Each structure stands twice: as structure tokens, then as C-alpha cells.
Amino acid sequence: MKKKDTNASKEGIATRTRRTIIKLLKQEGPLDALQLAKQLGVSGMAVRQHLYNLQAQQLVTFEEEPRSMGRPAKMWRLTSEANRLFPDGHADLIVSLIESMKEAFDEDGLEKLLEIRNQKQVIQYKNKAPSNLPLNEKLKALAESRTSEGYMAEITENKDGSFCLVEKHCPICEAAKVCSGFCNKELEMFQQVLGEDVEVKRTAHMLTSGNRCVYSIKRIK
Fold first, then answer.
1. Which of 3, 4, 35, 70 has the most CB atoms lying inside 10 A of its own CB?
2. Would you put residue 29 in left (φ > 0), alpha (ψ -120 to 50) or beta?
3. Global pTM value
């Protein structure tokens, strides 16, 4: 009995470690085994065993990155299959509704519905990030709001004074795959919320890079 309890305990620890690895790869992007081991406080060999287990489940994959000395490093990242482990905003239902709306209202009707949604979002975010706030505070409030909705958003400030809004997860990713208008309206929405005195550009797109969405934001001089 004690042996069974011990085995169950070990398996529970292994499961939690793998979940932590998945979360780190989602938050940080591609990492090698040693980087993961350092953050987890375990050996590189232990991390590799967990990574190979996750690879067998098709949740992670790797690309080799050349290093100045020694062998190339395996940079591990999540696969699209891993998206099911994160909030999906009831993806199947949303996709079904989008297809139904296309049939009922055609593309023009769907575009109008997305515009209504966009304007509601603009009002919502402007209430949380009012125009009288400094840009960095406005972005912080926006990121907090987006994170609460499942986007895992964060703000980074660059040396030139510009900012990046990074979203590491998209809870409506499946919906965006069948309706590009979601992504187009999202870019418009950020621009409207942040104002005409800033420039907003999407520099990375989750649907094409498979990792995260990144928006470059800078003041217009």
C-alpha cells in the first residue's frame, strides 16, 4: 500500500512539473532544457525526461539553435495541440456561431457585428485606461484588463521609449482562425483606446508565428 502511495505521489509531482514547464513555455516562449531547469530548480536531465514525455503527447516540439561553442541547443516550444490546455473561450461554440452568422447575415453582416463588438470593447477599455493617464499607465491598465480575459498580457518598455504589448495566449484563437475580422478589429481597437498620438503596429501574430501576438506602440513625435 505504501509503495502505491509513493508511486502516486511521484506521479503527482511529475504531473505538476510538466504543467509548470508548459506554463513557462507559454509565458516565456522557446527555452532550452537548462533554462527550464534553472527556473524549476531541478537537473537538466530531469527536465529533458519531462520534455520527451510532453513531446510524446505532441504538446511540445523543438528547433535546434546554433551556439558559438558546442552542439546546437534544442529550443523547446509549445505545439498548437497545447492550446487546449489553456482557456479557449468556448471555442467550439464560438466557431459554430460564426459559421451560422455568415450563413444568416453574409460577410457584410458579420463585419457589422464585429464593429459593434469592437466599439463596446473600446468603451470598456477606455473606462479602465482613460485618456488622461500617461501612456505607460494606460498600457498597464490595458494589459491587466486583457489578462483578466485570458490573454496573458504584459507590457515591456524599450530603450527608445516605445513599448510592446505582448499577449501570450488567445482565448478566442479558434474563432480568429475562421474569422480574420477578429484580429483586424483588435488592432483597430487598440489604436482607438490609446489615441491618435500613438502608433500601434502588430509585429508578431499568433496565427502565423504560433507563439504570441506582439504590438509595437510608440508616441508620434
1. 35
2. left
3. 0.67
